[in-house]
């Protein structure tokens, strides 16, 4: 009998080949040509599986990879919410986690999501907990998501926690959509006004300028200003475009690199009429819902506050929540710590105090979140109704001013002739 030489390690088992995507064409028992895609380790295994299903394979080949990078759309938070709810539903139905992940991966139309879920499935099938597998993809599963899943695993209620996460993400994304809508309209007013002005200055006013040159008289001051501005725009429009684009990219880069500058911008946004109030309400809603869901999942309060600080969407509120965490860590009640930062409305502080006294902090926080989410909805709808006619007024003023400026010389000439 052969023996292993002393000091020599036995040969390790070769690593299992990862699954690959294959496309195939075959004929079923009725003679119908059918096509499909499947994941397997080799072409032969695909053919064997097709024959087992009563399909005679004709062509089986590896799925061609895209020429430029990965195919598919980028993965959005809404996709993660859908994944969470689907996984929760399958686990509640008794489907084992690895099998559930395999089903979800094979059923995705977006290859990027399929690859992500497939990677998680491989980690879980290799013995890792789901929270550990998710931690390998922090771009899509943040600390909050990982902490909630870890708590669900510890308490044995992972399916319930995943369903709660899905609902949370859907609500947060809906709230973000409202905020984007609120910020879009003022930007749209400015953009349309600038665009109309540029079109008039570059294409319309030069037509009048050739007429003015035949008058042989001095132009009114306002008309002369428009003519000078039109000449500048025709020669240096590219410079204006460069300055605007450079300013936008510069602000974005400065906000990403400098926390102080980002805090300054967030503070200024909170002071803008109407928009600032919406941002306040949004930050409070996100704070309340995130803290409520982490507390209900069993995450320790101090750790939950650390996670919540980054979910408010505003650095001013983020710093305030960190101060609350420091106070809670040394023994202060949450409501007292919230009162000290002087940022949360009295109603929110009082409802938090009632929740703490009644032992139902999470329930009270959810009520706060629902109230402020509704306030955001109402404020955005009101802002939209207000800005729709305002856009027309702004455009009318811009266009009307330029039209009057162009006809002033004609009126002046008519008066002189008369």
Automatic annotation (TrEMBL):
GO terms for biological process: protein secretion by the type II secretion system. Signal peptide: none annotated. The chain crosses the membrane at residues 183-205, 235-254, 390-410. The keyword tRNA processing does not apply. InterPro entries: GspF/PilC (IPR003004), T2SS_GspF/T4SS_PilC_CS (IPR001992), T2SS_GspF_dom (IPR018076), T2SS_GspF_sf (IPR042094). Pfam families: T2SSF. It is a multi-pass membrane protein. Residues 83-206, 287-409 form the Type II secretion system protein GspF domain. It is found in: Cell inner membrane. One of its GO terms (cellular component) is plasma membrane. The keyword Cell inner membrane applies. Keywords: Cell inner membrane, Cell membrane, Membrane, Transmembrane, Transmembrane helix, Transport. It comes from the Bacteria. PANTHER family: GENERAL SECRETION PATHWAY PROTEIN (PTHR30012), PROTEIN TRANSPORT PROTEIN HOFC HOMOLOG (PTHR30012:SF7). Belongs to the GSP F family. This is Type II secretion system F family protein. The lineage of its organism: Bacteria, Pseudomonadati, Pseudomonadota, Gammaproteobacteria, Lysobacterales.
């Amino acid at each position: 009998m052969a023996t292993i030489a002393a000091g020599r390690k036995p040969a390790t088992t070769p690593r299992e080949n990862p699954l690959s995507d294959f496309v195939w064409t075959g004929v079923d028992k009725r003679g119908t040509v059918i096509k499909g895609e499947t994941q397997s380790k080799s072409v032969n295994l695909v053919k064997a599986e097709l024959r087992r299903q009563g399909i005679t394979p004709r062509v089986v080949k590896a799925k061609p990879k895209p020429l430029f990078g990965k195919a598919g759309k980028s993965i959005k938070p809404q996709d993660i919410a859908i994944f969470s709810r689907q996984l929760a539903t399958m686990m509640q139905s008794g489907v084992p986690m690895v099998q559930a992940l395999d089903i979800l991966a094979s059923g995705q139309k977006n290859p990027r999501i399929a690859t992500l879920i497939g990677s998680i499935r491989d980690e879980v099938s290799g013995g890792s907990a789901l929270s550990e597998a998710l931690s390998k993809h922090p771009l899509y599963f943040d600390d909050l998501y990982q902490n909630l899943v870890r708590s669900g695993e510890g308490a044995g209620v992972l399916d319930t926690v995943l369903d709660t996460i899905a609902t949370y993400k859907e609500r947060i994304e809906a709230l973000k959509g409202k905020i984007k809508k609120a910020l879009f309209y003022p930007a749209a007013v400015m953009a349309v006004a600038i665009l109309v002005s540029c079109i008039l200055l570059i294409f319309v006013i030069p037509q009048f300028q050739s007429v003015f040159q035949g008058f042989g008289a001095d132009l009114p001051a306002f008309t002369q200003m428009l003519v000078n501005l039109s000449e500048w725009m025709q020669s240096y429009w590219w410079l204006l475009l460069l300055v605007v684009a450079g300013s936008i990219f510069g602000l974005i880069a400065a906000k990403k690199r400098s926390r102080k500058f980002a805090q300054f911008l967030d503070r200024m946004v909170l002071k803008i009429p109407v928009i600032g109030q919406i941002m306040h309400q949004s930050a409070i809603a996100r704070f309340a819902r995130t803290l409520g869901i982490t507390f209900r999942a069993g995450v320790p309060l101090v750790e939950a506050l650390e996670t919540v600080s980054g979910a408010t969407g505003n650095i001013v509120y983020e710093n305030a929540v960190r101060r609350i965490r420091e106070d809670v860590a040394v023994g202060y009640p949450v409501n007292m710590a919230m009162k000290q930062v002087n940022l949360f409305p009295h109603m929110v502080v009082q409802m938090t105090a009632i929740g703490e006294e009644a032992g139902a902090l999470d329930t009270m926080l959810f009520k706060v979140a629902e109230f402020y989410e509704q306030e955001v909805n109402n404020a955005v709808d009101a802002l939209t109704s207000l800005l729709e006619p305002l856009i027309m007024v702004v455009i009318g003023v811009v266009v009307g001013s330029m039209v009057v400026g162009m006809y002033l010389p004609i009126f002046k000439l008519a008066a002189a002739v008369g």
